[in-house]
Amino acid sequence: MSKKVLLATILVMTMSLWQGVKAQDSVFSYAYQGNTLYYIIDSTGNAVVVPPLWPDYDETNDATWTGYTEPSGAVVVPDSVPFGGTMHAVTEVGHDAVYNCELVTSITLPSSVTAFGEYAFGKCFSLTSFTVPEGATELSSRCFWNDPQLASVTFPLSLEQINYRAFYHCNSLQSIFLPDGLTTIGNQAFFECTGLQSVSFPNGLTTLGTAAFYGCSNLQSVDVPGSVSVIDEWCFNQCSNLASVTLHEGTETIGSCAFRECTSLTTINYPSTLKEIGDYSFQFDSLLAIPLILPESLTYLGVVAYGDCHSIVTASLPGSIGEVPGELFYGCRSLSTVTLGDGIWSIGEQAFNHCPNIDTLFVKSAYPPGVGPLTDSTFFTYNSIVVVPCGTRNVYIADPIWSEFAEIIEDCGAGIHEEDFPEVKIRVENSCIVVDGAEGETVSIFDVNGRSVRNSDLPSGVYIVIVGNRPAEKVVVIR
After folding, report:
1. 165-198 residue pLDDT tens
2. Which has fewest Cβ within 10 Å: 106, 140, 265, 461?
3. Which parts of 303-407 fold into alpha helices (H)?
4. Which ranges in 352-450 belong to alpha helices (H)?
5. Would you say the pTM of this structure is higher than 0.90?
């Protein structure tokens, strides 16, 4: 290559670079269908919608459009704009582009727009609906930050990610239908969207970020696909009208405080893949009443996870957790029957404090689990009957703490001793107590508190059976 050609090539490249930088730094306006917006030309030659004060604009200053005529009503962004004698495709709505434009009611974007900047449509107090163009793969952080009138959003199939606080405080959103391609809902994405009543999660979703739906107080039910292995901490905290949660095989972790203060929650299932339930996960869920039966896959259970869940009556903890954490059921005043699986070796401080109605403890371990001194209030009362494995009663009686309980009996199978009543046999079948050989005699069944119970579908517990005028017999039912 000759020196002249080389010099000409370098000159052309230098001019091109200079023109690109010059174009990128030049903010220009363009009026279209009654509204004027501002643009720059990026290094690729495409146009980006920007605020009029770009690049010096700071979103902490609400005077975005001071000295400029801000857009209003129905805003239509063109698919291309003229600059320097050339038409340039509009491909991005940049950060703060129409921030704080209180009179904008709708925004229509061309299909060429596939990217958005932070606060792009933030604090547009009159914006009621929005359609994200097909081709867009993510919504930027705070994209629709604090748009209180935004009631409807249509998402494209191309969307993969909704970022941090994208719909923060969008209180008029009621229903969200998320596209199949979406994989990530970022931290606080729908934080305190208080009008949100329903959301459909796609089966390919993998990430539910921290506090993603925190404070969505009108959300009524959620069905989280098994592709979400971790429901992150605070995810549905303070969703006070959330009544039903459905989880699927594949979910492994419920993060700390994930469902805390969901005061209407009555129903949740626990998949067999679940490994962790974090601290305070369900604290103050006062209507959660279904039998709490945690899966054997669980290896970690956090402190106060079910604290102040006043409606839980029955709880079964797997031995796989090893230790019952401190204050686990603190304040669960309706709790009456607890099963501690074989493998539980320790019970934390105040785990059952302020649980005054526990009447039966099923302890599956052959050796008494460690319990702190009486002064640590692990149990609120020691009036419960403790049911232990056959042949271990003496070991429990010898323990200084377990010996404090009202009565310790062994689970060796139900039945009246043959030497006392050879003609009568008691057995448990299909969660019912069956008495053989007592034809014509009255059979009465009571719980340990002396209340008469119906002999049908009995929950786990200790029951008192009286046959005719014979002495009462304790019968253990385990489901």
Report:
1. 999 999 999 999 999 999 999 999 999 999 999 9
2. 106
3. 393-397
4. 393-397
5. no
